[in-house]
Amino acid sequence: MNQCKTESIYRSSSSCRIIRAKVRCEMEKEYVLQQQVTILNSKPSTQFRLDALSRDGNEHRSHAKSVILTDKSILTVLERDMYIDRTFIERILDSLQEIMQEVNRQKMSLLLHVNCKNTVRFFENHTLNRLEERILRVVLRNQHGASFLSDVPLFKCQGESNSAVVKICNEALRNIALCANKHDDIIKGHITHCVLAPQAAAYLFHEIVGHLFEYDYLSSGQCIFNMNHLGADLFPKCITVIDDFEVMEDYGVCFGQYDDRGQPLKKTIVVQNGKVCNAIKTRRVDTIQNNPLYRMYNLFLKENNNGLTQSEMIQKIDSGILIRNATAGSVDPLTGQFSLNASNCAFVKNGKLLCEISDFVISTDLQKVIESIEQVGKDISFFPSQCSKKGQIITVGTGAPSVLLSATSVLEDGLWT
């Protein structure tokens, strides 16, 4: 059962007695209204979906172009007017006309996937939590099979959304055009450094800090870290990592005010100036039919206001690699073995980007990753993302500035060890 117990302490001024009141919270209903708009080469299609779930197993799903809810109070809470209308889609298509001409000329395909989702969860103690997601995924593929993928937040201001979509599509077009002429043979010898762009750095710290310091792993005895490491200096002084649920509200995702056990959300400082401070104890669930797990909301690496930008880091490198994106990654909690799928990468020579290189996998152990951190930049960015744990896939936020790593190993056959 999805239960939680909170303890409230009331102190009487007369007798100083302590009265403990235990409140039992159980999620009893969940309503999910979702709109998906897929645009493939300028041809849009729309799908609405309504899920109404409850703990007792009753379930209702509706697939239609329009959904009529009879419960007006639920309709008000869901705020259907937050959803994407046809006018907005048409504006995006109009703003992408020049890009689409180049996409068609090079025989590429451009897919835009808009996902707008409102979820309302009700608890027995009359608490309700509302979650919102407004995310657009851009996927561009060329005739050689190379692809560029990025998630773009949809802002409440449609003008901001339009400019963000155009910017990311232009970047995708510029980078993927180079994919047909990648030069892997140029990397034969020793490389000195690796620059992680904000998205790749955010993915890295999501894996090596976020998951390993979730309370169930940390207290299980089956993790490279344990509760005894709280208060220990495990990271360089430049590392401060925070899980803050509120930040993503400006990036298309609202997590509400409560976790999925009905507990009030608050900011958690996981690592501060290299010292481990707290475990992640907030609980989240993908659907009411499952039990909540200890999960992150928006874990990010804090920027260094006196640090460098990505371009300034590149200028310091004699021979190295720029990793713009990470598409997948994992860490073994027991052994600390770590892997990260790097994509949209470039070779750096004498402080300049020399050429694009093929995707590869960084495979090493956690301690080497920590020891390789040299600098944290000041150019922080945040990204909506998807996270999987024990079969439950949820939306999370990630964030980081650029990070400079020392690379004391050799890149061979797509494997950095």
How would you characterize this protein structure?
With 417 residues, this protein is of the alpha+beta class. It has eight helices and 25 strands. Strands 8, 16, 17, 18, 19, 20, 23, 24 and 25 form a nine-stranded mixed sheet that branches. A hairpin with a 2-residue loop joins strand 11 (268-272) and strand 12 (275-276). Helix 2 (86-95) packs across helix 4. The longest helix is centred in the middle third of the chain and has 19 residues, at 158-176. The model is unreliable at 1-24, 63-82 and 409-417 (pLDDT under 50).
Highlighted features:
single chain; alpha+beta; nine-stranded mixed beta sheet; eight-stranded antiparallel beta sheet; disordered C terminus
Determine the number of helices (DSSP H or I, runs of at least 4 residues): 8
What oligomeric state best describes the polypeptide chains here?
single chain
- Got a strand count? 25
Q: On the 0-100 scale, what is the average pLDDT?
A: 78
Give a brief outline of the structure:
The protein has helices spanning 72-78, 86-95, 97-105, 158-176, 198-211, 215-218, 310-315, 366-372, and strands spanning 3-11, 18-40, 43-54, 59-64, 109-123, 128-141, 147-153, 193-196, 241-243, 253-254, 268-272, 275-276, 283-284, 293-294, 298-301, 319-331, 337-349, 352-357, 360-365, 373-376, 381-389, 392-400, 403-406, 411-412, 415-416. By secondary structure, the protein is of the alpha+beta class. Helix 2 (86-95) crosses helix 4 (158-176).
